[in-house]
Amino acid sequence: GAVVSQHPSRVICKSGTSVKIECRSLDFQATTMFWYRQFPKQSLMLMATSNEGSKATYEQGVEKDKFLINHASLTLSTLTVTSAHPEDSSFYICSALSLGLAEFSKADTQYFGPGTRLTVL
Amino acid sequence: SQQGEEDPQALSIQEGENATMNCSYKTSINNLQWYRQNSGRGLVHLILIRSNEREKHSGRLRVTLDTSKKSSSLLITASRAADTASYFCATDRRVAGAGSYQLTFGKGTKLSVIP
To answer: Rounded to whole angstroms, how far apart are CA atoms B20 and B16?
Structure first.
């Protein structure tokens, strides 16, 4: 239980194209999802907080027009990297905050997806 | 800015030995969590300790929290080669008006357990 999936797991794209990454909570509902970025051998940096049905809140220094976040349902949030450049190459990880309604998920616990490796050529 | 700072940055031990990792933070917290990440993979939640708790156990894991020193430690006893991974502490803060928590991660400790 309490599984979060991400799709795709790996993506390689050309500079200037847009890439969409999906984050799904498979067996529980999540009003809030978080998007993180992790560069090699570094820690996770929070990019934005996504609340279902409302606009995402971006951390300082994260361009909201470049990293479009849509949280259309309680189980799905998407991150679109627009006009991707090589410096956007990174490991993107999402997490979903459990409401604690499912017996196998604890309230206020973030469950992390497996990550998406983005490489921009 | 990074809230949690782990030390050591890297730790190499023999299988069967205990591994201790430390984490320090700067501001007040609701709770502190430890996560594990295998290379190139997502995070696995290990244990959460609340600000009013001092020690918590889960299997071979033991976590302590000293709020006066703003520090925590993670002890893995009787380590196994499969414990090889990066370990991160994360502190949470409630987002005002949003009713949800944000996690701030430390830089992590890379643990290598040699068979």
So the answer is: 13
